[in-house]
């Protein structure tokens, strides 16, 4: 029996790749939206006057220095670049991918991973857990970048 060879049109392959990217991007966006919705519900629960997240507050938070955490990480910018579209570096010298969504499109799609890093980084920088509003503001800033 002779095997039949089918040739695919290059446009078909491009369309399939584009659709796969669109589906994954949509799934990432839905996960981020769910994460922000959870933070908003928690922020509203803690403060009935909560009126939404602010990328401007998130940017200020990202650049602010704090005294409560570790001495070598007083700000988010201690490890993450001042420009979130650029790579950062840990105090030990390990490279960190950019935190801006435009530079790292797959970021913030896994809520468990986001929470893991908030827990670790907030403790290191602030010496405490971040509030839901701080998380939502910071994440709004990163999504806007």
What topology does this entry show?
Blueprint (H helix, E strand, L loop, with lengths): L9 H37 L8 H9 L24 E2 L5 E2 L14 H16 L5 H13 L1
Antiparallel strand pairs: 1-2
Helix pairs in contact: 1-4, 2-4
Entry summary:
The chain is mainly α. Helices cover 52% and strands 3% of the residues.
The arrangement of helices and strands along the chain is: HHEEHH
Extended strand count:
2
Count of helical regions? 4
Task: Indicate the CATH topology.
Answer: Cytochrome Bc1 Complex, Chain D, domain 2
Identify the CATH architecture.
Orthogonal Bundle
- The total number of structural domains is 1
Largest sheet: 2 strands, antiparallel
Q: What is the CATH C-level name? A: Mainly Alpha
Essential attributes:
Cytochrome Bc1 Complex, Chain D, domain 2, 145 residues, 52% helix, mainly alpha, two-stranded antiparallel ribbon
What this model shows, in words?
There is one protein chain. With 145 residues, the chain is mainly alpha-helical. The chain has one domain (13-144): Cytochrome Bc1 Complex, Chain D, domain 2 (Orthogonal Bundle). Helices cover 52% and strands 3% of the residues. The protein contains four helices and two strands. The chain has helices at 10-46, 55-63, 111-126, 132-144; strands at residues 88-89, 95-96. It has a two-stranded antiparallel sheet. The longest helix is centred in the first third of the chain and has 37 residues, at 10-46. The chain is globular, with a radius of gyration of 20 Å. Mean pLDDT is 87; it is low at 18-25.
